[in-house]
Amino acid sequence: QVQLVESGGGLVQPGGSLRLSCAASGSHFSINTMGWYRQAPGKQRELVAAFTSGGSVTYADSVKGRFTISRDNAKNMVYLQMNSLKPEDTAVYYCNANINSRDVRGRDYWGQGTQVTVSS
Predict the structure, then answer these.
(1) Which residue has the higher pLDDT, 28 or 40?
(2) What gap in Å lies between CA 120 and CA 112, rounded to an integer?
(3) 98 has a pLDDT exceeding 90
(4) 99 forms bridges with which residues in the sheet?
(5) What's residue 48's pLDDT?
(6) CA distance 52 to 58
(7) Range list of β-strands (E), the chain
(8) Average pLDDT over residues 43-60
(9) Residue 85: is it exposed, middle or buried by C-beta count within 10 angstroms (0-12/13-18/19+)?
(10) What's the rounded Cα separation, in Å, for the pair 7 and 28?
(11) How far apart are CA 2 and CA 19, in angstroms?
(12) Is the distance from CB of 2 to CB of 24 less than 8 angstroms?
């Protein structure tokens, strides 16, 4: 069984920065894709940034130039550096990974979510 655990959310003023972290743990697995989604109240969950299976990066248009996704493959971790935060970035942020394990290939896993609130 694979688990994703996020950390780093919180309350920040507009224009501020936060860094989210996500660690994948378990045994006998490999990661196909890994990234971040968010869900604001009353809205659908949306992609924020992710590494594709080919190793490239994709960002939502709304965060380009402000957010940066990075990863540490040795630690099975992905990070999201969020700068110039805006009130509309307020949401629960979820880590997502598509994983091959010994028993199942291409299964999606989700973290528990971490709240990011941008407010003065």
Answers:
(1) 40
(2) 26
(3) yes
(4) 31, 107
(5) 98
(6) 7
(7) 3-7, 10-12, 18-25, 29-39, 46-51, 57-59, 67-72, 77-82, 91-101, 107-110, 114-118
(8) 95
(9) buried
(10) 24
(11) 23
(12) yes
Assigned token pair, 50:
């992710």
**Token pair recorded at residue 59:** 């960002």
pLDDT at 103: 86
The pair of three-digit structure tokens given for residue 18, joined into one six-digit string: 């936060």
Task: Determine the Cα–Cα distance for residues 34 and 78; give it in Å rounded to an integer.
Answer: 7
pLDDT in tens, 62-95: 999 999 999 999 999 999 999 999 999 999 999 9
Cα dist. 75→25, 34, 51, 82 in Å?
Answer: 9, 13, 15, 21
Beta bridge partners of 97: 34, 109
